[in-house]
């Protein structure tokens, strides 16, 4: 589930970035009536990216992580601190390549990959790491723009959209080994970033070029023009 949210964030971020670069350059210095609708689309893309990233990093501070039913990085890493849970995934890993003699290697890979993901997660919280500011931005967006608006609390952090793509890039090195440990699948997020960018650029260039209208799917009634 976390990987699905990562893929969604990659695709949405690519659409937003390409829209800014391609359509934004086209609109520069012009009074463009369609800009109103374009800006609504961009705001919707930002909201979608915020929601995907919030799901990836979701947790409640007032409740122990291992008691939270959330498919998120901090909760999953907390659950994996339990020895029985770790043994379960090691046993699963021994079945990845049946009959090929990789049982012990795969079980060790689970421990190694979880340790890799945990070290990168903990690095985000080190003093001076940009990731801390990026996570603060994400929570500020959630609290002031998406989940609710608190009328009696002044915003402590002014959300900066530029932090979200940076947080996404910092997420990939955590998710890649974590997904490998839990599923045995090594995701190629780098290729996904490139392909999502190409798809987004193709969409916005077609948008500016003006795609021909699609034929109506509603059959005309007899006698109607």
UniProtKB/TrEMBL annotation:
Domain (HEPN AbiU2-like) ranges: 34-203
Top-level taxon of the source organism: Bacteria
InterPro entries xrefs: HEPN_AbiU2
Pfam families: HEPN_AbiU2
Protein name as catalogued: HEPN AbiU2-like domain-containing protein
Species name: Azospirillum doebereinerae
Lineage per the UniProt record: Bacteria, Pseudomonadati, Pseudomonadota, Alphaproteobacteria, Rhodospirillales
